Each structure stands twice: as C-alpha cells, then as structure tokens.
Amino acid sequence: MQRSEVNYYLQHTREFFRQQDVHLPPWADFDVSQWRAQDREVAQEILALRLGWDLTSFGAADFLQTGLTLFTLRNGSPGGQPWHKPYAEKIMHVREGQQTPMHYHPHKMEDIH
C-alpha cells in the first residue's frame, strides 16, 4: 500500500472518530517537531508500547475487504517491565463491508471501543 493511501485511510478514520465524538490524546496528530519537543520518557513509553495509529490488512491483498484501522491508547509491555499493564485499550474502525479476522491474546485483556 502506498503511503498516500495510508494517509487517506487515517484521515478518513480521524473524521469518523470526530463524528462519533471520540477524543484522542494530543499526540495522535503530532508532527516531527512536536515529537522532538516531548519529554523523552513519555515519548519512549509511547514508542516502546507501540501506541498510536495502526492500519492493517492482516496480510491480505485488499485492505478494504479485509482490514482494520485502530488507535492504541494503552498497551502492556512484554514481561510487564517497565510499564506493567496486563491489558490494552484500543479504538477500532472497521469500514462497512470490511472484515476483520478474529484473534485474541492469551496473556492480555483488551478493551475494544
């Protein structure tokens, strides 16, 4: 998928979230200069726990048929160190007609919105 397509789908999801009155943290839309201005420890946690935007086709060829756009607000770290959270909190956007394969994590709970 081209970066321009990723950006298009992310923008569409941002608009959908706004219409649904879903509020994301300020860092959801940071640019490079805003990331550089952040406290290193906060930015390290966001990066290490893979928080933020994710767009996946689950390895399928057609994102609009099989895919998911999501924003991870909270996530546990492997082994629970240094950020112990045995759960994840994610906001997901599945488009009309799109399928998302079933999955689970045996060692983590997820709150799905």
TrEMBL record:
Isomerase listed as a keyword: yes
Give TM regions. Answer: none
Q: Which InterPro entries match?
A: D-lyxose_isomer (IPR010864), RmlC-like_jellyroll (IPR014710)
Q: What EC designation does it have?
A: 5.3.1.15
Catalytic activity as recorded in UniProt = D-lyxose = D-xylulose
Q: Which cofactors does the annotated protein need, by name?
A: Mn(2+)
Pfam families to which the protein is assigned, alphabetical? Lyx_isomer
A GO molecular function for this record?
D-lyxose ketol-isomerase activity
Q: Which UniProt keywords apply?
A: Carbohydrate metabolism, Isomerase, Manganese, Metal-binding, Sugar transport, Transport
Family, according to the entry, reads as follows:
Belongs to the D-lyxose ketol-isomerase family.
- Protein's UniProt name: D-lyxose ketol-isomerase
